[in-house]
Amino acid sequence: MSRNHLRLIAYGGLTLSWVTASAAACGAPPQDVPNTQSQPEENVQADINAAQQRLTEIVMALPGVVGIGQSLCGGKPCFRVYVSKLKPELERRIPKRFEGVAVEVVESGEFRAREP
Questions:
Q1: In this model, does residue 66 exceed pLDDT 90?
Q2: Are 59 and 79 spatial neighbours (Cβ–Cβ below 8 Å)?
Q3: Distance from CA of residue 29 to its chain's centroid?
Q4: Which residue from 49, 59, 56 is spatially nearest to 92, judged by alpha carbons?
Q5: How far apart are CA 97 and CA 37, in angstroms?
Q6: In 3D, which of 35, 13, 25 has the Cα closest to residue 80?
Q7: Which one of 17, 32, 65, 106 has the largest count of C-beta atoms within 10 Å of its C-beta?
Q8: Contact by Cβ (8 Å): 9, 52
Q9: Is the C-alpha dihedral spanning 82, 84, 86, 92 positive or negative?
Q10: How far apart are CA 55 and CA 103, in angstroms?
Q11: Which of 38, 43, 41, 30 lies closest to 99, judged by CA?
Q12: Whole-angstrom distance, CA of residue 115 vs CA of residue 103
């Protein structure tokens, strides 16, 4: 995945899509992404994709979460959890790190499907 793309999984009528985005730094620089130094890039990406699927199952069950995607934070992989409205009680329920990868919560509003 290039630095200028965000892999986005959203539910409620939206499908998997690629969205152009700039890779902004997360609040705190991520630390230890496990085994990224010794694995080939495709293996690291596969591990991150699998972790994203597991995180998606957890956070998409929370009311107010509208999507999850991958990005870069400080030059390292991170997850972004998109919420319709950022509330302290919702933010507390979303992990700051998941399987060694930083997690950033972003208030995005609701996602809407575009007309064809």
A1: yes
A2: no
A3: 15
A4: 59
A5: 19
A6: 25
A7: 65
A8: yes
A9: negative
A10: 10
A11: 30
A12: 31
pLDDT, tens only, 5-45: 344 444 433 333 323 233 333 444 444 445 455 566 777 78
**Residue 23: how many CB atoms within 10 A of its CB?**
16
Q: Specify the amino acid at residue 12.
A: G
Residue spans of alpha helices (H) in 16-87: 41-59
Say what the pTM is.
Answer: 0.63
Inform me whether the pLDDT recorded for 53 exceeds 90.
Answer: yes
Nearest to 10 by CA among 56, 48, 63, 51: 56
